[in-house]
Amino acid sequence: EWWEKERSQKTPESKAIEEAAKLLQSSDIPVAFPTETVYGLGADATRSSSVQGIYRAKQRPSDNPLIVHVDSLDMLQRVLNPNSQGSPDSTKTPHNALPSIYKPLIDRFWPGALTIILPNPSGSVLAPEVTSGLTTFGARMPSSPLARLLIHATDRPLAAPSANASTKPSPTTAQHVYHDLKGRIELILDGGASGVGVESTVVDGLCNPPAILRPGGIGIEEIRQCEGWENVAVGYKDGTLDVKEVPRAPGMKYRHYSPKARVVLFESTSNPAGVAKHVQADLKDTAIGAHKIGIIRTRNWKLGLELASEDDIANTMNPISSPIEKLISFPIPVLGSGNSSSRTKMAYDCHLGSDAVSIAHGLFAALRGLDELDVDVIYVEGVSDREGDLAAAVMNRLRKAAGAEMRV
Ligand code: TXA
Ligand code: MG
Fold first, then answer.
1. Which of 212, 319, 338, 370 could form a disulfide with 294 if both were Cys (CB 3.0 to 4.6 A apart)?
2. b/e code 332-343 from CB counts within 10 Å (16+ = b)
């Protein structure tokens, strides 16, 4: 009702949503839109040519399936039961109910940052490109009102991956999307910075025990509290966790979240003295060391480096352009050995805050912001993923950004 009123009053917001919905219905060029996790690149999930447009714009490998976004449980039921719509004989076709294991999760976390894996029914309305040949599909009901209104106005389930160029950190602002996809798409709905900052948690309840295929915005401990999910298995692999299986969410095997700069991740177990030594060696090595350095701090790191005075820091304040207030960055002149000014190194400090919520919120913006500053290397202070909540998701993204050989 609220939407119908908005629509009839033709507010700037409703006009933008309508325009985006029309494009989604009629064009094969995907539309970027905000969600509470990260920005998505949407297409009508029922039309092949439209879904192909996503893979084209992102240059994404086509064996990596997409998440289907719905605005309501009604819309999800229509995807699960393609043949029974409005048919008087609907009693003849067996009803594909939502598997009961998902009920407690849906009650607690939807709408929100959780993707569930469901059987793709025979005669599915979903374009085959959505599932890239799997017999299942991932579904999510986002909590972002703008995202849900867009799905509602389009009146189709929307297939949407994160709206970054393939391999880059996911976008959490419209500016990030523009940076990666300008010239490739026609419309970005700008809803400000995404609140959560990391993608949804992907869970598979079709296997026994159920499994987490990707850590994300909903914490593992919270999922464990739900009936039927007490023994949920960790079905992804990111280095420290001892998981025997190969990744089951196809997307997890690709290079991901990578800025141009080399990322050196210090696990929370790293010895602080060792960290300082490592960084200082790089700063002092004028021959091969990095010229511009990015530092992403979370909890404990103090900049016990060879830095300029606090006054100099204040004078050279140059915040990364980002709507994320938590992200503080300023260049710090760092003197290398020797006097030549060409040997002066610059460090940019981003402090994301110390709780997992603010770290997740600013993480991708920090990686992207430092890339814009053309740093050669980014040192990141990791947190312990045993803390649950968003910490596991943050460390999963960072380990992928760093790659196995870049972890200390
Ligand atoms: O928060 C999010 O999930 C964001 C926003 C836009 O909703 N979307 C997102 O999509 O992160 P994408 O495409 O970047 O990641 C989808 C993940 C991939 O790891 C993919 O392999 C997995 O979900 N996935 C999708 N369908 C699957 C299926 N049927 N079985 C297993 N994994 C699946
Ligand atoms: Mg992605």
1. 370
2. bebebeeeeeee
**Nearest atom of ligand 1 to the alpha carbon of 37:** 1
* Beta bridge partner(s), residue 408: none
Q: What is the mean pLDDT of residues 327-341?
A: 52
Q: Give, for ligand 1, the residue of 166, 172, 202, 397 to mutate: max count of ligand atoms closer than 8 Å to Cβ.
A: 202
Distances (CA, A) of 298 to 336, 349, 358: 25, 11, 9
The environment of the single-atom ion ligand 2, i.e. residues with CB closer than 5 A, is 162
Ligand 1 binding pocket includes 214 (Cβ within 6 Å): yes
Q: Which residue has the tokens 């999910």?
A: 229
Nearest to 196 by CA among 172, 228, 174: 172
Report the length, in residues, of the chain.
408
Predicted TM-score of the model (pTM): 0.89
Q: Which amino acid is at 335?
A: L
Q: pLDDT of 316-331, one tens digit each?
A: 444 444 444 445 555 5
List the beta bridge partners of residue 263.
378
Q: Which tokens sit at 131?
A: 């599932």
User: 262-309 pLDDT, tens per residue?
Assistant: 898 988 888 766 666 666 666 665 555 566 778 888 877 765 444 444
Residue 303 to residues 25, 350, 379: CA-CA distances in angstroms?
Answer: 52, 11, 12
